[in-house]
Every structure is written in C-alpha cells, then in structure tokens.
Amino acid sequence: MSDSVASLYGGPAGQRVRTRHLLQAKERGEKWAMLTSYDQYTARIFDEAGIPVLLVGDSAANNVFGYETTLPVTVDELLPLVRAVVNATKRALVVGDLPFGSYEEGTTQAIRTSVRFMKEAQCHAIKLEGARPALIEAIAGAGIPVMAHIGFTPQSEHQIGGYRVQGRGEQAKILVEQAHECAEAGAFAVVLEMVPGEVAKQITAEVPIPTIGIGAGPDTDAQVLVWQDMAGLRTGGGPTPRFVKQYAQLATTLTDAAQAFAQEVRGGVFPGPEHTF
Questions:
Q1: Closest CA to 225 of 255, 206, 198, 247
Q2: What's the mean pLDDT in 32-58?
Q3: Does 205 score more than 90 pLDDT?
Q4: Binding residue per annotation — 229?
Q5: What does the mean pLDDT of the chain come to?
Q6: pLDDT value for 152
Q7: What is the pLDDT of residues 221-232, one digit of tens each?
Q8: 129 annotated ligand binder
Q9: CA distance 200 to 218
Q10: Considering the entire predicted model, what is its pTM?
Q11: Distance separating alpha carbons of residues 272 and 223, to the nearest angstrom
Q12: Which residues are catalytic?
C-alpha cells in the first residue's frame, strides 16, 4: 500500500476510512480514487488494492440487472448489493446510492430511505443526485453522511435531454452555486459529472469539501469510474464514454477463459484425473 493511500486511511490496518479522512486529504492536496462495486469479490479486491471509497451505485441498474437506464432499479434491489460490499471490505468507506423515486417526495421519504440503507445494508454514507440542499441538510441532520451529485445526473436524463455536458456558458455560475449550497447544507463530498474542466477546477478551489470527478477533468480532489468501464468488461451499448480509461480488457480475458473451458469439455480434456475423486 502506498504512503499516500496509507495516510488517507488515517490509522492502523483494519480501521475504516471516515469522511473526516477525506476532508483531511483535501486539506493536504492528496488525491484519491473511488470505484463502483456491487459484489463481494470486486469489493474485496478493490479494498485490498487500496481504493478508499466504494460506491454501490444505482448504475447497478445497467451493470448488474441489465436495465437500459438507471431509472428502474429499486431500493430493495440495491440493499443486498450494498450489504455484500460492506461485508466484504475492511477499510473502504462504502456509499449507497439512493435510486430514482426513493427521495424525491421530500425529507420524510429521503430520511426513511437513507435509514434503510444505513440499517439494513450497513453502509457508511449515502449519495443522492441533484442540488437538493434541503434534503441534504435533513439527512445529515439525522446523523447520516451525505455525498452530493451535480452536473449531469443520470436519473434526470429525460429532463436534461440525454447524456450532455452540464455547466457550459451561463450554466457554469449555476453549477458553482449548487456546489456551495451542497457543502453548506452538510454534504461531505460532491460528485461532479460531465462538467467542463475549468468549472470543476473552480468548484474544487472554492468549496471546502472534496470534489469527485467523472468526466470533469484532472483538477478535482478525487476521480470515480464504474468498475466495468475501468476494467474493460462492458461490451456493446455504444462507444466507450470519452472520460473512461480502460486499465484492463476483462471482456477478452473472460471470453478466452470460457472458450477454453468449453473446448476442453467438448474434447474430454476436462475434468482430468486430478479433478476426479
């Protein structure tokens, strides 16, 4: 584990990353990475690799359940995934993503859903989309850490008009104001998705909480990617987004493994004597 990751963990082996560690990292100018995770195996691997924050995103909709968008996924579908990630990790701070329809009715619904994520899935924080300072304040006031998410918000893609960069031109001022509102309401971090790099740089310099970029340039305090994008597992569904860098080609590796297995079964090579009781 690198010195920078060790310092972010802020304590001896086995101690969880806390939101205060992320704030301290921003003060030190220390960048960090966040990945999505939806199961015990990737969670354990990422935890041991030193990824300090794992997001069980509503992106499970199109990365686990096969939905076309994030909109159909439900709280009941996400809770077991969050619980699996929490149970498989020892150090990472695990954030549960509130899905569409689970908080828009107001503070009562938002707190109720957040409590379910904390009690039933045992995550350490929740994330919700949009500049919603009243909801952030209410949830944080209930003792639940809140990660905000502004810029492009996938749950609002129909209202936005598709996957489009947010914060250009006159919208930049609005986005900066939204980031300040989220911080003032009590969010411990804010995701900036598909935001011009200069706008993300300004927000990062102005707000006291960590900024987490995805398609927001190099100047945010942290970066997040969907793990299947990062590892080259996703196939089909159009071109890879511009902001994604693939660090492996797992789709090719798994295809080769499956084909080799099938070939050995057809040829009577597997199972061999060493695999037989």
A1: 247
A2: 97
A3: yes
A4: no
A5: 92
A6: 86
A7: 999 999 999 999
A8: yes
A9: 9
A10: 0.93
A11: 46
A12: 193
